[in-house]
Amino acid sequence: MADLNFLLSTSGLFTYEAALYSAAFGVGQLNPTMITTRDRSTTTLVVDSGGYSLISGGITTPLPTYRVQVLQWQEQFGDVGIAVDIPTRSLDVRGSGYTQFYQCLDQTEKNTQYAISSRSRSDFILCNVMQGRNHAEAQTWFERMSPYQRLLEGIALAGDTKQDMWFWNKRLIQMRDAGLLDNLQWIHVLGTAQPGFGVMLTGLQKALRRHLNPHIRISYDSARPFRNVQANHIITRGLREIGGDIAFWPYQFSKNSSALDRSQRFPFSSPLGDLCPYGDFNPGNPNTVGGWDTTGLMMLSNHEVYKEVQAIAEANRLAEAEVTVGGGTPWHVVRSWEAFDLIWGTTQSDLHLRSYKKFLQHYAGVSNSKDDER
């Protein structure tokens, strides 16, 4: 079972050096996990605050106590942490306890002030969370929270505007010009599952490294290998072109537990899949939908992490290698990479933001705060 730990450099399957984990699952967990026992010299951990769990009833601890626990856990086990926020999605969640936009903003501001005043690790990157269900809310949130950026090293984009790269590059430029990004080391986009958007972020990171900070990192997370796999038994076969974009090519296992021959090789290639017959993944448990058991689903998640990481890495390498138009990289991604370099590398940022707006907003319409279930 140790080989399923992809953070382990000695795994016999594969190693991936980064992960996001929610403090909602970490706080109060006493048993060692792959997260708490990781080698911090070779891996990076982003620790989310568990904002969605907070508004959906998953956290029963009083908020003043919970935010203390979160910061302590983040600093003990993480490298990058996200301040406890109240997602604006809470306004659409029955029983969340929040009914007004300013309740979310006011409480997030108080939580951020607490984190700033109470943090203890000088090498810990703390992220300022940006929320909003639309541009108006995101702008109001930005105006309130951006002054705190002087005291923080990271920014986390969340809510329904998080994939609007026109909107957020415009605000980041404003912050740069106001001297608010002098300490910026990290940008994280919470809960996004579009591979094309991931490649777009690679272009932004390249531009920021050229023109702002050569060491800045951009990351994003997706729960697909865990939530989608374990709840719906859907895995990724690779990438496919669809509608001028790239998307994960899915395969859904049948709910009929006898649909595949368990004595045959697992049909899809990965370090784990190449070693096992299908029956090792799905033993035909008569008490579960489709015959899956806990161990088999853990194996399936390991397979899926590998497939998604490889697919996105290949898409990034292709975007870097292609020198002519009409290749496999979506046109809006190519133009966005071009835009980022002009926005951050020239004195005419507003002009280039206007000129490239439609490309930068390509994924704005598919951004969904429901991805951000943390």
UniProtKB/TrEMBL annotation:
Lineage: Bacteria, Pseudomonadati, Pseudomonadota, Alphaproteobacteria, Hyphomicrobiales
Native organism: Devosia soli
Biological processes annotated in GO: tRNA modification
Gene3D superfamilies tied to this protein: Queuine tRNA-ribosyltransferase-like
Annotated protein name in UniProt: Uncharacterized protein
